[in-house]
Design a protein that fits this description.
229 residues, alpha/beta, seven-stranded mixed beta sheet, 8 helices, binds zinc ion
């Protein structure tokens, strides 16, 4: 039977081990390699089946090059989402990126989209398809453009840059995308998204931005009907 002093020593040793383990874990956390990736466009035309059609047989036998392009990498970052995707994009007509967002929605990822009211109505815009799939899309009601182009994956990874989400930009323009997981920067973009999400909440749209003085004009309109819910 160990004496009291031996128990004390054992206790101290266990405490020291626990402390060093915690220190080791903290060190590992601190040493986690930050995500800092830069993608430049235009991207070469490559096969995106591995990312967008995982149900198809591999290896793919299509004629397109099976190499990594900036588009493949961008798709993979987006498709890494497990919980949430906040998307704030000026124009959205890329079929590839639309397919990726629809895939995430199908997988149960919570997708929210903010876009520009003028550009969501242009020919080729994919916003209607997102809405038809059940994704909630909010848009600005300003005279200025909602010109952001960023996405936040799982509230941890920020994807942002000059790239409009259009095939023209992806395959024709000189563009850049930055992918980072810096918590301070990611949080700033989440805050901006949440701010705009509330600002563009259709339930609180201010249809009379000049104040209450503007509504009597409408009420004098013979076509105006006041509804009482
Ligand atoms: Zn292929």
């Amino acid at each position: 039977m160990p004496r009291a002093s031996s128990w004390k020593l054992l206790g101290l040793a266990a405490f020291a081990v626990a402390l060093s383990l915690e220190g080791f874990v903290q060190l590992l956390r601190r040493r986690r390699k930050p995500l800092r990736e830069v993608l430049f466009f235009p991207a070469g035309i490559t096969c995106t089946d591995a990312e967008l059609h995982p149900e198809r047989p591999v290896p793919c036998t299509c004629k397109l090059p099976h190499v990594d392009s900036s588009l493949n990498r961008l798709l993979r970052h987006l498709l890494s989402a497990q919980q949430s995707l906040e998307l704030c994009v000026f124009s959205f007509s890329s079929l590839h990126l639309c397919r990726a967002v629809l895939l995430l929605h199908e997988r149960g990822v919570r997708v929210r989209v903010i876009t520009d009211s003028d550009y969501m109505a242009v020919t080729g815009s994919q916003i209607g398809w997102l809405r038809k799939a059940g994704i909630i899309v909010r848009h600005d009601q300003d005279t200025g453009y909602m010109h952001h182009k960023f996405a936040v994956v799982d509230k941890k990874i920020l994807i942002t840059g000059s790239l409009n989400w259009t095939s023209q930009a992806i395959q024709g323009n000189k563009e850049n995308i930055l992918v980072v997981d810096d918590t301070v920067i990611v949080q700033a973009f989440i805050d901006e998204f949440e701010k705009l999400w509330e600002l563009y909440n259709p339930a609180t749209f201010d249809f009379f931005p000049n104040g209450k003085n503007s509504s009597p004009t409408l009420k004098n309109d013979p076509g105006y009907v006041q509804y009482h819910p």
